[in-house]
Amino acid sequence: MIHIKDLSKSFGNKLVLKDINISFEKGKVYGIVGENGSGKTTLFRCIAELEKYEGEIGTHYDQLKNHLGLLFTDPYFFTRITGKEYIQLLLYARKIKNIEINSRNIFDLPLNQYASTYSTGMKKKLALTAILLQENDVYILDEPFNGVDIHSNIMIVEIIKKLKELGKTVIISSHIFSTLAETCDEIHLLENGEFIKSATKESFSELETEMKKFSIGDLVEKLGLK
Ligand SMILES: Nc1ncnc2c1ncn2[C@@H]1O[C@H](COP(=O)(O)OP(=O)(O)OP(=O)(O)O)[C@@H](O)[C@H]1O
């Protein structure tokens, strides 16, 4: 369980997150949606203690960061480290030994190749594989579907369902509503650093309609397409 209470975050004099209050439970999948720049990544970075913030992030874990797998939107890899070495490094950090990596390479990545030479989608799949093999309790996936091929997208949806089944906590940001609707128990809409709407499964379509109306309105008509 993660409890976020009155969380605020500023960069300089720019307030990016305002009084965020939300809880994330075990065995549930949460979707965070919002326009570019609404604060999703900043919220994730605060939860992972990669940013300083005001307010409280409480958890029953000794240290959340030891149970958390964070998939960045654009994972970065040092040069001259192979895919396999990267996974080994992350496993070593959790003192996990004796995992046969090759047989668990479900995305069929060229693990002996330098990770920095991977394509965007391959980098994302490598980073995801590594945090999954760490057997974390909490997963934060920042735009996991973005940049990966359709086959991998389907696989990631199945992985999220499996994580839920295993009682993990999963928090996802995505701009693809239909995929969130398929995987999430709750979806929360962030706007200018504030949660302005939340929906459970029964009200996802209502939320989607409202978001479309709010963000698109009659803008497409203004193009005057003929
Ligand atoms: N290190 C930083 N220094 C200054 N401003 C920052 C920094 N990181 C983020 N911001 C600002 O905070 C706001 C929220 O950014 P954030 O990356 O959290 O948004 P987001 O919802 O994840 O966007 P996207 O959908 O484009 O990924 C933006 O205005 C961004 O410019």
From TrEMBL:
UniProt keyword Methyltransferase present: no
Q: Name one GO molecular function term.
A: ATP hydrolysis activity
Q: Which residues form the ABC transporter domain?
A: 2-217
Q: Which domain of life is it from?
A: Bacteria
Keyword annotations: ATP-binding, Nucleotide-binding, Transport
Q: What is this protein called?
A: ABC transporter ATP-binding protein
What organism is listed for this UniProt entry? Brumimicrobium glaciale
